[in-house]
Design goal:
alpha+beta, two-stranded antiparallel sheet, two-stranded antiparallel ribbon, 2 helices, 22% helix, 33% strand
Length: 97
C-alpha cells in the first residue's frame, strides 16, 4: 500500500517526506519503498492512476501497481518529454518477527 500524494517540507536543509515518521509496514517480510518527487505538475496525471488532482490517501494494491508501471514508463520515456520531471528513490527494508 502507498500513501499519496505527500507534500514534503524543508527542515534544517533536509527534505522531510513525512512530518512524523511511522513504520511503513509492521508485518514480517522484505519490502521495497519507492519515493517519487515530482518536479513538473503535469507529470502527476501521467503517474497517479486516480488522475491529475488526487487527494492524499492510501492507494490500494491495484492502484499501487498501476502507479509503479506508470513511473517506470515515465522514467524510460524514449522521447525524453519527461526528462527531469521526476526524481525516484528506492529503499529496501526487512521486518523480522
Amino acid at each position: 500500500m502507498a500513501a499519496a500524494p505527500i507534500v514534503p517540507t524543508l527542515s534544517d536543509g533536509r527534505l522531510l517526506l513525512l512530518r512524523r515518521a511511522e513504520p511503513v509496514n509492521s508485518m514480517p517480510g522484505r519490502f521495497i519503498v519507492t519515493c517519487a518527487l515530482v518536479w513538473q505538475k503535469e507529470a502527476i496525471a501521467r503517474l497517479d492512476p486516480r488522475g491529475a488532482g488526487p487527494s492524499a490517501g492510501i492507494m490500494d494494491e491495484a492502484e499501487t501497481s498501476r502507479f509503479l508501471t506508470n513511473l517506470r514508463r515515465l522514467i524510460e520515456d524514449k522521447l525524453r518529454k519527461w526528462t527531469g520531471a521526476v526524481t525516484v528513490a528506492q529503499a529496501e527494508y526487512v521486518v523480522k518477527a
